[in-house]
Amino acid sequence: MSEIVLNVEGMMCEGCEGSITNVVKKIPKVVNVTANHAEKKVTCTGDGFDINLIKEAITKAGFDIKE
């Protein structure tokens, strides 16, 4: 199982966390997603997921990823 942590700008509340969690959970091989607006972080765990699909889903949901 692998884990990634992304710095995500634009999350202001629990509703934003839910929006990100919902879109990322739909990505194949993602097992768990935790979004934290206070820390501006999204943590994803899974086995063999495509990080580019995760980034694309977060961006399409209206948030910015800072690397």
Short description:
With 67 residues, the chain is an alpha+beta fold. It is 33% helix and 36% strand. It is built from two helices and four strands.
Q: If you had to describe this structure to a student in words, what would you say it looks like?
A:
With 67 residues, this protein is an alpha+beta fold. It has 2 helices and 4 strands, in the order E-H-E-E-H-E. It has a 4-stranded antiparallel β-sheet with strand order 2-3-1-4. A hairpin with a 4-residue loop joins strand 2 and strand 3. The radius of gyration is 10 Å and the shape is globular. The mean pLDDT is 97.
Strand tally = 4
**Quaternary organisation of the protein chains:** single chain
Rg result: 10 Å
Mean pLDDT: 97
Beta percentage is: 35-45%
SSE ordering = EHEEHE
Query: Order of strands in the sheet with the most strands?
Result: 2-3-1-4
Largest sheet descriptor: 4 strands, antiparallel
Shape category? globular
Helix content: 25-40%
Terminus-to-terminus distance: 22 Å
The number of distinct helices, counting runs of at least 4 residues, comes to: 2
The chain-level structural class is: alpha+beta
Low-confidence stretches: none
